[in-house]
Amino acid sequence: MGAPDRPEPERPERPEPGRREREPYGPDWHGPGSHGPYPHEQPRGSEPLNARSPLLLRAILSGIALVVSVAAAIVFAVAARGDGSAAAAGICAAVAVVAAIDLVVIARRART
């Protein structure tokens, strides 16, 4: 008295949650700039042995910032008339302190 035995319709298999059905560019693709099975290109030449550090450029820029900001702080402090020059002198002094701290950090890193 029941319904005749009918085969159930085939349902397509669903991928696991969090997984795509297929890889968009193939299984060896690791993103833009990938070349083969490694996600990033391997260094060439003697790069690890002779790596160049940006500390010299950073020290030069910090030294320039220190000199310019101290000079500007002095100029603004001397010319302070209550029209915001004192605030400008304070900002320049703060930039000088940051540049001086950066020079100390650079000197410590250059020694190690």
TrEMBL record:
Native organism taxonomy: Bacteria, Bacillati, Actinomycetota, Actinomycetes, Streptosporangiales
This protein's UniProt keywords: Membrane, Transmembrane, Transmembrane helix
Compositionally biased residues, Basic and acidic residues: 1-25
Transmembrane segments: 55-80, 86-107
Protein name listed in UniProt: DUF6343 family protein
Native organism: Actinomadura chokoriensis
One Pfam match: DUF6343
Highest taxon in the source lineage: Bacteria
Renumbered residue ranges of the record's region Disordered: 1-49
